[in-house]
Amino acid sequence: MCVLLHLLLVLSIIQCSEAGNKSQEVLHQCRDEEKLSISLCAPIIEVINQYPKLYTDRIHDPMYYQNLEKLCQEAKGCVSDLNCSEADALRNDIDKVCSYSLFFYAENQKCLQKFHQKAYVANKTEDSSCYAKFPSFQNEMDKKYKTFMEGEECFMNHIEENCNDTSRKFFVKSYNYLVEYMTNKPEIRTCDPYHMFLEQECMGIFAELIDVATSGLSPLELVYNWFMNDRIVSAKMNVLVCSQTFHYESRKSATL
């Protein structure tokens, strides 16, 4: 019995040692030849990063998404055989950059704007749906992050019911990155993802304003409602606040 226990102990030590060596192999600092391979991947990652700017006029074309997705797969393949720490970090960066660039596909933006619109309406009415848990104009980023992480099921139900198949797959895969973008307000303001996602929130409120203002009204009724309807007046004020916040921070970004 003692011999058997000793043998099992030795085998356990060997297994732990092998696991430790494997972990060290994955996380070792990249050698010069591996760093060279990483540097050769850099151009395609930069193309992915610049893709939304290069093809702004094509964001409504499904090929925008498909072509960009192919570039992302190519970038991941570029570092797939490298098992060192810098390559592992680069893989995470590729996922993050791809999530940001793929978001610009018009259907993805439309899907998120619709979510913000529903959340805005839920907070302005006695709506008891889960959308009411997402307050508009949440400036405390820790609370906003917690709300989105705890409300992931609500968001996923939204995309299931309101978004196309491409957007559903995208948000399921990229949700954590998008929450990070929405809640990571930089101390030094630059042109960054945070402000772009703030704009999406503004657009959601603006969509509600348009929906209410144009819901089967005659021109005369439209003019009357535009100035007298409490819901429209409130939405106009909130659009103004949201847009002023966005443009104010954007201007500060440009001057800092």
From TrEMBL:
Residues 1-19 form the signal peptide. InterPro entries: T20D4.11-like_dom. Residues 30-191 form the T20D4.11-like domain. Keywords: Signal. This is Protein CBG04694. It comes from Caenorhabditis briggsae. The lineage of its organism: Eukaryota, Metazoa, Ecdysozoa, Nematoda, Chromadorea.
